[in-house]
Amino acid sequence: MRDWGRPRIFATLMSQPTKEIPLMEKIVSLCKRRGFIFQSSEIYGGINGFWDYGPLGAELKRNLRTTWWNAMMREREDVVPLDATIIMHPAIWKASGHVDTFSDPMSDCLLTKKRFRSDHVEPQSGVVYHWSGAKEGDETARKEIQLALDALSPSFSVLLPAGKPPESARKIAIQYYQQRGFKIPELQGETTEKVENSRAFNPENGAQLTEPKPFNLMFHTFVGATATDADKAYLRPETAQAIFAQFKNVVDSCRQKVPFGICQIGKAFRNEVTPRNFTFRSREFEQMELEFFIKPDEAIEAECGSVAQWSESADLSAPQDNWGWDMWHRYWVKERTAYYAGIGLGADVLAYHWQTKEELAHYARACVDILFKFPFGTEELEGIAARGDFDLTAHQNASRKPQDVFDEEVKNAFAKWTDEQRAALIERKKTEHRAKTTGGLSDEKVVEWCERLFKGFYVPHVIEPSAGLDRLALAVLTLAFAEVEKTDAKGNKETLTVMRFHPRIAPKKIAIFPLLKNKPELVAKARDIYESLKRHLAADYDEGGSIGKRYARQDEAGTPFCVTVDFDTLGEKGPELKDTVTLRHRDSGEQERVKISDLLGIILPAVS
Ligand code: ATP
Q1: Per residue in 485-530, pLDDT tens?
Q2: Nearest C-alpha to atom 18 of ligand 1 is from which residue?
Q3: Which of 283, 206, 268, 233 is nearest to 46 (CA)?
Q4: Which pTM value belongs to this model?
Q5: Nearest residue to 372 (alpha-carbon basis) of 253, 227, 265, 472
Q6: Burial class of residue 500 (count of CB atoms within 10 Å of its CB; 0-12, 13-18, 19+)
């Protein structure tokens, strides 16, 4: 297989942290210059956390979307798609827990009022200067304003990093009290204290931050003309809930039986406290989510005698009847890893974080984050969670509409069980639920659940691979970015950018050039080729500037193949070269002579 030039520069830069910031700056500037990503509403000064995809970015994103859609649904028999609305009944978000708990901790700088996500504040060490308050030092002001001001002055602290003079901390405190109405604040009751790794101070000026407060991340709006609280609705903060809310309709309308999945790609909105790192944390973004519904392990136990146990050597190549949630979860981690490898994100740029018991949501059995080595750090690209039956059960309870399925095979399997076996299962489940600190069922509910299961009814459990399309686009942009030094004919050195996208996701697959734009026969031939290829591939036609300039333009866009039509193509050097063109490969710079009729056959397999 051709090596698509996985950018060596990336590996080099990853090991040289000092070059990380310039690299991101170069990428951001290339994205704007070449039309990958623009700031939303830029002509009005932009809007923080919102991004637009330009002509090349829109194609790149579309290709990523298509690769995901194909791998997760089209190429499988056990996944069906859904395309739901962004605004849904607000009860969905109440039932899912988003109204009550979908929040991030937020702190404000007491001096500048800048808002921080408390858990993202850079930890700092140093000496904290603390003042119990301030007194008005200006006599006239003291008389004019109320004396009570002194008494009302709140305490304030500033963190002073090592090596800075205490005066700089006092200056910040004076500014703070001035903002509160003091003309000449005299700081009172100064004390100091050493702190390590504190997130309680603004990293930019050392000023104290407010205590973290939960901030709900959902954007809301009103549906209808009255705009009262009763009309409040939310822009979805994830695509997953629509899948749960439509689960029954999908089951009833298609011929899928558990285990099977429902997938969706679509916009999601989160009013992030601090959007950052270019598009990495945006307020409007796209998610690609699969909810893969499986039988509870107890049903597998009844059907197969036991549930397959995962081990390092377990064969995950094809789903098996005796798989429980653990094997399915591992399988999806493997499938997603293979997907990333297929678009050029191999083991060298990915990492995995298996959430610890303390990190896991109370209902989750396991969750692994697939991380990508971004230039600004190794960060989450996708989460794959085993969520039990939490979501469908929550909607069943809130909507009072049954979300369980009837499974003939499960019913038949339990029919073969003895009363002792059933009683033992009930006891085992009771013990399990009693041991839970949150969300455990009462003994009575456990019996009810088991009795339903014995009759073949259960609420499916779910494995959820949830990926961010914009984060993936950013990952492939940073991975593709490479710089090469070229020396021109006059001996001048220049640095050129080559976007080494995997051909499957490259925005344009091929560009066609006539050697000279003022030769109508060359132009007509090149346009003919372009017309016939563009029906099959994202193709570009370019006749401006020297061939070298045109190659450089396509390299920056990441186009893997360029074709030049010259006089040989017209048969001027003899019939053997007639209807052949020069095919140039982006990463190797290699050029070969190929027949026009062979072009599609060479390129299509490489880009699909
Ligand atoms: P993070 O911890 O980074 O905020 P998360 O764990 O809240 O992410 P999920 O709710 O699991 O994210 O969402 C699934 C995926 O959606 C994430 O892995 C990520 O790729 C994407 N995503 C989530 N929030 C954002 C955002 N603000 N901007 C861009 N993509 C996002």
Answers
A1: 988 778 889 899 999 999 999 999 999 999 999 999 999 999 999 9
A2: 382
A3: 283
A4: 0.88
A5: 472
A6: buried
Q: Is residue 12 over pLDDT 70?
A: no
Q: Is the CB of 387 under 6 A from ligand 1?
A: no
Helix (H, G, I), strand (E, B) or coil at 498: strand
Whether residue 104 has its Cβ less than 6 Å from ligand 1: no
The closest of 110, 157, 155 to 134, measured between CA atoms, is 155
- For residue 4, is pLDDT > 60? no
Question: Could you tell me the two tokens for 173?
Answer: 């405190």
* pLDDT (tens digit per residue) in 355-402: 999 999 888 999 999 999 999 999 999 999 999 999 999 999 999 999
Question: Count of CB atoms within 10 A of residue 25's CB?
Answer: 12
From the CB of residue 80, how many other CB atoms can be counted at a distance below 10 Å?
Answer: 17
Count the neighbouring beta carbons within 10 Å of the beta carbon of residue 501: 27
Instruction: Please name the amino acid found at residue 81.
Output: P
Distance 204 CA to ligand 1 centre (A): 26
Verify whether ligand 1 is closer than 6 Å to residue 374 (CB atom).
Answer: no
Rounded to 10 degrees, the C-alpha dihedral 239/242/247/249 comes to -130
- Kind of pairing between the strands at 377-386 and 461-468: antiparallel
CA of residue 281 to ligand 1 center, whole Å: 8
Residues 598 and 608: their CA atoms lie apart, in Å, by: 16
- Centre a 10 Å sphere on the Cβ of residue 165 and count the other Cβ atoms it contains: 9
Task: Give CA–CA dist 520/567, Å, rounded.
Answer: 11
In angstroms, what is the span from residue 468 Cα to ligand 1's centroid?
A: 6
Q: According to DSSP H, which parts of 436-574 are helical?
A: 443-454, 469-480, 520-533, 547-557
Is the C-beta atom of 464 inside 6 A of ligand 1? Answer: no
Burial 302-325 (b: 16+ CB within 10 A, else e): bbeeebbebeeebebeeeeeebbb
Q: Which residue's CA lies nearest to atom 24 of ligand 1? A: 281
Among residues 534, 540, 545, the alpha carbon closest in space to that of 561 is found at 540
Alpha helices in 70-108 (DSSP H): 90-95, 98-101
Least confident of 17-21, 47-51, 408-412: 17-21
Rounded distance between C-alpha atoms, residue 402 and residue 259, angstroms:
18
Q: Sheet holding 115-117: strands in order across? A: 115-117, 103-108, 213-216
pLDDT in tens, 52-94: 999 999 999 999 999 999 999 999 999 999 999 999 999 999 9
> 467 CB under 6 A from ligand 1?
yes
